[in-house]
Amino acid sequence: MKPAPFKYIAATSLEQALALKAEHGDEAKFLAGGQSLIPAMNFRLARPAILIDINGIEALCGVRTSEATTRVGPLTRYRALQRDAAFVGLFPLIGEALPHIAHPQIRNRGTIGGNLSHADPASELPAIAVALRARLHVQSAKRARSVAAADFFVSALTTDLQPDEMLTEIELPLQSPRTGSCFMEVARRRGDFAIVGVAAQMTLDNHDACGDVRLSFCGVGETPVDASTAASILIGQSPTDDMLRDVAASVQTMIEPAGNVHATADYQRHVAGVLTERALRTAHQRAHDAR
Amino acid sequence: MSTRTFGEPVKRNEDRRLLTGQALFIDDVELPGLLHAAFLRSQVAHARILRIDVSRALQRPGVVAAYVADDLGDYWKPGPLLVPPPPIAGAIFHARTQVPLAREKVRHVGEPLVIVIAESRYIAEDALDDIDVELEVIPAVVDLEDALSAGSALVHDDLGSNVSAHVHQSKGNYAAASAGADCIIKRRFRYEHGMSSPIETRGVVAQWDGRANQMTIWDTTQAPVFIRNGLAAMLGLNERQVRVIAPFVGGGFGPKIMMFYPEEVLLPWISMRLNRPIKWIEDRLEHFFATTQERGQIHDAEIALTKDGRILGIKDVFLHDGGAYDPYGLTVPINSQCTLLGPYVVPNYDSTFTQVFTNLPIVTPYRGAGRQHGVFVMERLLDLAAHELGIDPADIRRRNLIPPDAFPYNNQIIYQDFAALTYDSGNYEPVLDMALDAIGYARFKAEQATARAQGRHLGLGVACYVEGTGIGPYEGAKVQVQSNGKVSIATGIGTQGQGHFTVFAQIAAEQLGVEVGDVDVVTGDTDQFYWGAGTFASRGAVVAGNAVNEASKAVRKKALKLASDLFECSEDDLVIDGGKVSIVGIPERFVKLGDLASRANPMRGAVEPDTEPGLEATRYFGPKMGATANGVHAMIVEMDPDTFELKILKYVVVHDCGTVINPMVLAGQIHGGVAQGIGNAFYEKLAFDDQGQLLNASLADYLLPTALEVPRMELAHTVTRSPLNPLGIKGAGEAGAIPGGPLFAQAIEDALGLKAKGVELLEIPLSPSRLFELTRTAKD
Amino acid sequence: MHDDRHDITLTVNGVGYSRRVESRMLLSDFIRHDLALAGTHVGCEHGVCGACTVLLDGEPVRSCLMLAVQANNHAISTVEGLAGKDGAYHPLQQAMHDHHGLQCGYCTPGILMTMSAFLDENSSPDENEVREALSGNLCRCTGYQNIVDAVLTAAARMRG
Question: Which C-chain residues 73-112 have CB contacts (< 8 A) with chain A?
Answer without folding.
Answer: none
